[in-house]
Amino acid sequence: MKQYNAYPVAIGRWMALAPLDMQYTASVAGAVVTLMRATARIELPDQFNLVDHFVDRHIREGRGDKTAIIGSDRRLTYGQIAEQVNRTGNGLLGLGLQEEQRVLLVLRDIPEFATAYFGTMKIGAVAVPTSTALRASDYAWFLEESRARIAFVHSTLLTEFEPALSGQRYR
Predict the structure, then answer these.
(1) How far apart are the C-alpha atoms of 118 and 56, rounded to whole Å?
(2) Tens digits of per-residue pLDDT, 31-62?
(3) What is the Cα Rg of the chain in Å?
(4) Is the pLDDT of residue 27 over 70?
(5) How many helices, marked H, and strands, marked E, lie in the chain?
(6) 116-151 CB burial, b ≥16 within 10 A, e <16
(7) Confidence bin at 14 (pLDDT 50/70/90)
(8) What b-and-e string marks burial along 55-74, b requiring 16 or more CB atoms within 10 Å of the CB?
(9) CB within 8 A of 148, min separation 6: which ones?
(10) CA angle (36 as vertex; 43, 32 as ends), nearest 5
(11) Mean pLDDT of the chain
């Protein structure tokens, strides 16, 4: 277990660790105002898989039948998501994907995005999410730079994505 003398600070959609022993101030109309002072200690295990926190923990704590994701036409429970995440992870392993290898995600904002993202991370691989508004040359760049071995591509984006596969070194 590692201890960090820091506390989480939310900055918009991002989370950062701020040093524990610092005071954060701002100047407002010439007056100095204390914004926050760190007061907590964070402990993280030596090994931490984000999927455990966002998916598996809910199963362990008895929330498997609770709604986890609401899509346009369906609701999925934590139990259903966990099952799909495990199936996806096992499928990736079956395809020969190894720890720390990359998986490109070209998926719309649908429940399958969460399944692919968490399934990839659960087996220790690296999910590389991309925008669905990119062009073939952009996808080719992402494939090359990330060295992604596998890609999840939404069926409506195949026409734009397919040309990006030609000439890729990491297949």
Answers:
(1) 10
(2) 555 555 555 566 767 788 899 999 999 999 99
(3) 20
(4) no
(5) 6, 11
(6) bbbbbbbbebebbbbebebeeeebbebbeebebbbb
(7) very low
(8) bbebbeeeebeeebbeeeee
(9) 101, 102, 103, 104, 128, 142, 170
(10) 155
(11) 83
Q: Give me the amino acid identity at 18.
A: A
Cβ-contact 117, 105 below 8 angstroms:
yes
The amino acid present at 9, given as its one-letter code, is: V
160 and 136 in contact (C-beta within 8 Å)? Answer: yes
Distance CA 117, CA 107 (A): 10
AA letter at 77: T
The model's pLDDT over 77-124, given as tens digits with 9 standing for 90+, comes to 999 999 999 999 999 999 999 999 999 999 999 999 999 999 999 999
pTM: 0.74
The band of 11, judged by pLDDT with boundaries at 50, 70 and 90, is very low
3-class SS at 59?
helix
What are residue 18's DSSP bridge partners? 7
Strand bridging mode 150-153 / 102-106: parallel
The identity of residue 13, as a single letter, is R
Identify the residue whose tokens are 């036409």: 73
